[in-house]
Amino acid sequence: MAGMKVLTASGAEANIEDSALQKFSDNLRGPLLRRGDAAYDSTRAIWNGMIDRRPSLIAQCVGAADVAQAVQFARESDMVVSVRGGGHGVSGYAVCDGGLMIDLSQMRGVWVDPKDMTARAQAGALWGDFDAETGQYGLHTTGGIVTHTGIAGLTLGGGIGWLMRKHGLTIDNVLSFNLVTADGEAVRASAEKNPDLFWGLRGGGGNFGVVTSFEYGLHEVAPQVLAGVIVHPADDATNVLRHYRDFIADSPGELMTILNLRKAPAAPFLPDEVHGVPAVIIAVCYSGAIEEGERVIEPLRRFGQPLADVVRPGPYSAHQALFDASVPHGQRYYMKAEFLDELSNEAIDALVRNAWTAPSEKSYTVLFQMGGAVRATADDESAFVGRQAHHAFDINAVWTDPTEDERQVQWARDFWEEMQPHSAGSVYVNFLGDEGEDRVRAAYGAKYDKLVALKTKYDPTNFFRMNQNIKPRG
Description:
Elements: E1 4-7, E2 13-16, H1 18-27, E3 32-34, H2 40-44, E4 57-60, H3 64-77, E5 81-84, E6 100-103, E7 110-113, E8 118-122, H4 127-134, E9 139-140, H5 151-157, H6 164-167, E10 174-180, E11 186-190, H7 195-201, E12 210-217, E13 219-220, E14 225-233, H8 237-248, E15 255-263, E16 278-286, H9 290-301, E17 308-309, E18 312-314, H10 316-320, E19 332-340, H11 345-354, E20 364-369, H12 373-376, E21 391-399, H13 405-419, H14 437-444, H15 448-458
Parallel strand pairs: 4-6, 5-6
Antiparallel strand pairs: 1-2, 3-4, 7-8, 8-12, 9-13, 10-11, 10-12, 14-16, 14-17, 14-18, 15-16, 15-20, 19-21, 20-21
């Protein structure tokens, strides 16, 4: 058969001749996958099992030059393009139907300079890759809370993690980006070089190009952090949440906490009798001196009658993997999220009414404690919105049976609607699904117009549109 049918950026079909495909393949150092190839299905599969899109081509890039070749080919062919880093985004924008997927998953190198306390990482690296390399020197930066999350998507959206209250969001620790723009040009963005682009990449997502590598500042983290979970029965949720709210009000930056409201998973760190019990799970990580951490979290540990307390000194990298097994690849995920103001009694009541009514035992609700160094950084330093929020709130419907889609999604939407009176007025962009332009505007608030101007400058044709899209003018 001569050529290949592909989907163009305008939504029409077009034919690409075999000679053009062969030339593109020859110019790539990595493989070019087509439907039917052995690695095609495993490569297009991402974390969220709800996503079942089929690109016509997958360019498995092994370096920035491959990315530039892929961008140029897609432009010349007028193909719709998606970009896959770690493939962990709930929206599934990493995969397109009928177009070209630029796959960065082979680009996982991490290089550490312990003297300067910096690291350069390729955009396909996962946080587990990153922490393994930097941890050899006792150095880390704010990463996600799951080791199989990609560094790229998390960083470009802001970057919430265990160290953020001490060292800021992930974007607060980025020193520079290397990227390929929509015209195929290799560009560096830093505070000194292309500072407008540097501003937008820190929170603006994948709207401005394909980032091929990130340079991060690192921080010394003690060999042992005080971390783990305290588990309370859901029957005592109101009292536990009110005590938790009061406890964290003046907590130091070294302490990061995450609330997880769910049926306790069959995790190896939890006693067997707790598995499947509706519970309030308070995850903590104290990144300062262990003795001081013990003193700081004492009021949290001695409140009520916990079902389990498995907070112990241990390596930071081990704590990073604590929730990995709870969010495996291939399950069906649907999220609704918001930044929240302080946890009022009314907000707590709404949480207690809804969190354990999920039709799936796998579903959960999380609240990430904000503040500390996140709030201390000036709001105009980056495109990120939400520094003044008290919590990043995320409802996660999780299930496996496709026939249950409607029921599971509706639970999350109804719960989210009930939490709206307690919203801080914006949402963390990395927790957004495919929710439309209004929600993207809400995520960026007053910064949206500045981002539109930046998009118009660097991507005037909206070539990079498979993302939480900021449309250029015109």
